[in-house]
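One thing: can you check what follows?
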Amino acid sequence: MPDSEYYKNRLSFDSGRDKVWIEVARFLQKYVPKDAVVLDIGAGYCSFINNIKAKEKHALDLYKGFVKYASKEVKPVVGNCTDLSNFKNNSFDVVFSSNLFEHLTQEEAKKTLREVFRVLKSDGRIIVVQPNFRYSYKDYFDDYTHKTIYTDNGLSDLIKRHGFKIIKRENRFLPFSLKSRLPKFGFLIRMYLMSPFKPLAKQMLLIGEKKNVEG
């Protein structure tokens, strides 16, 4: 998984990206009750968790330097997404991840989903924003830390096999990279997110709801 050198060389901080995430969080807010307890795994620069409205906000990342990007409302934890032992069973309403699963092996992805299932409350939701290989195959392995290929069908099936019902699926949701690929004006980003036609969109959105019995 990415380390400090990766963040330095590949994911330099971009304040413009936060403008995009303000609108992405606004768009996803309908799936996140404002009284929810939320965990962002692989939080990176905390762009989602800083901007979503929730009663309690937690963030986890393997990179120690991510802590300085968490807002004062966010409780950051340095750790691995395959081991959420810092968190109790049935303690979260929503677990979010963006651009995470492609950095994991298949076994690591399965461990992560088992842990997410464990920490989510009944009917809790997993929200995944993820490169869709179906549309991003030309760029997918430009990032040397990408380990596993996922399409909308493949990742949906994997999530379902770990006890979730897919309640929302957008095969084309966001551009492959948010850096300089979307306009930085809020109303234009909102129009893009609401549009059924999304040019440049190579990332998918999947939302799963925890069922009572793990599949």
About this structure: The chain has one domain: 4-210. The longest strand covers residues 120-131. The beta strands are 37-41, 56-61, 74-78, 92-98, 120-131, 164-175, 201-210. Helices lie at 4-10, 15-28, 106-119, 133-136, 152-161, 186-194.
